[in-house]
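Comment thread on ticket #2218

A.B. wrote:
> Attaching the input chain for the structure job we discussed in standup.
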Amino acid sequence: MHMADALLSPPVGGLMLAAGVAAIGVSVKKIGSGGGGLDEKKIPMMGVMGAFVFAGQMINFTIPGTGSSGHIGGGVLLAAILGPFPALITLASVLLIQCLFFADGGLLAYGCNVVNMAVIPCLLAFPFIYKPIVAKGLSKKTISVAAVLSVVVGLQLGAFGVVLETLVSGVTELPFGTFVLLMQPIHLAIGLVEGVVTAAVLCFVHSAHPELLESAISGGNNADGNSAGGNSAGGKRIRTVVVVFAVLSALIAGGLSILASSNPDGLEWAMEKTAGTAELEREGPVFQAAAGAVEKTAFLPDYALKDGEGSGGETALAGIVGSVITVIIAGGAGLLIHATRAARRVTQEKKAV
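C.D. wrote:
> Ran it. Output below, let me know if you need it in another format.
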């Protein structure tokens, strides 16, 4: 559901970019103040879970009988493991990497993609749907129900957000009535699949290290009131989870990504049905500047070499490279925020003395 620049007017793109940056800023501030649920042992999880979502988004699964495909968004999954604010920063990092290095999603559309794919699932679907359900007791049943419902609602809201953004942008090729009647059902089907995948992953995490899920719900503390992974046993469990997801990310990005469906994703499918094409054209200095910037930074556009043939090997290479970059940037963001928070705490303690 990555939006391209051609789906937006510059004013709408600029406004949504401001909204996306503001959401990232609020998340950084929340974590920096100690209220975001990010402790030192969760920092590696930001990197490795970001890589897992990056790899997962490369696998488009076919929606039977439609000629369309979909991929996971990962917002609810990340929020349920990391907490909503670290999850938003992690997913915003993934979207930025996809945009700049792989030309997946426009630069002008980055703010829309952050709001539709990160803000909505992490800051709306997770706290208002997922948390109330699992707050009654973490079990495979409650986790599964919460995961499916929150993912479906989050994706429906995100898809509707795309429709509204194109409407306000005056994209006449995509009339509201037709576009919304195609976008919502296809993303309902995609959401159901993603919900099941999210439930399966979270049930695994619950079996391997339930304190992680408890921590995300409580805002940083586990059921005993201690930081998740705060003892040696917890530390070993979180290391095991990190290793498992690192291996899965490598396998998905470097192997399973080759098997992804070639059908258009839900947004492209809805555009083709509505406008007859999945690639609209827009002219103007803003669009040219945004496209020019991405052209300079994207060394693996569309997950292939610039002069390559788009082979499976190139896709696997792009998956591995993207996953490594995600680990560095998402994990680095968590480390930087944590270090800044620690330094601020030391300064406050010295002033108090």
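A.B. wrote:
> Thanks. Noting for the ticket: Residues 312-352 form the longest helix (41 residues).
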